[in-house]
Amino acid sequence: MLYPTPIAKLIDSYSKLPGIGIKTATRLAFYTIGMSDEDVNDFAKNLLSAKRELTYCSQCGNLTDEDPCAICADESRDRTTILIVEDSRDVSAMENIQEYHGLYHVLQGLISPMNGIGPDDINLKSLISRLMESDVTEVIIATNATADGEATAMYISRVLKPAGIKVTRLARGLAVGADIEYADELTLLRAIQNRTEL
Ligand SMILES: [Zn+2]
Prior knowledge:
Layout: H1 5-15, H2 22-34, H3 37-53, E1 55-56, E2 63-64, H4 70-73, E3 78-85, H5 88-97, E4 102-106, H6 125-132, E5 138-141, H7 147-160, E6 166-169, H8 185-193, E7 196-197
Parallel strand pairs: 3-4, 3-5, 5-6
Antiparallel strand pairs: 1-2, 6-7
Helix pairs in contact: 1-2, 5-8
Bound molecules: zinc ion.
Residues 57, 59-60, 62, 68-69, 71-72 line the site of zinc ion (ZN).
């Protein structure tokens, strides 16, 4: 089906989103055209400001609109513990259960030998330099229980242990392959309370 260029372009943009096939992209494009001018304006503005105003915290790598992020800047947080997660969505999931009061380190990815992603390709170097000049005594690894999550946890543990830092991993309450982001609060709460030393 040949559409006028502006619609074809819009369909093309939508189809670049994850999980959106050409059929859904076409439906969304036609829906957008039917929206009010005001709603379309807001939508476009929100897309641009999300992209322009967000940055990564220079300390922990969390997505933020101010640097350092609100968590790193919060003097009341426990600075002896760092919880390592794959991305910012995991930080939100952890913050929601209000059980953890230390700092975070966001890897923005995982080591994935299968996909050729090594330690230098994720936000890991800054963790090492961060630990050198800090009072951190425990690092909790909270990567998902997937092959890549495990590979990343093993690597970090191997690097940090000789430095005399206690390295723990979230307990096995989380099912293999489960996403921390989608874990229910009770499961997450148990996982952090029953963490085990690596
Ligand atoms: Zn931060």
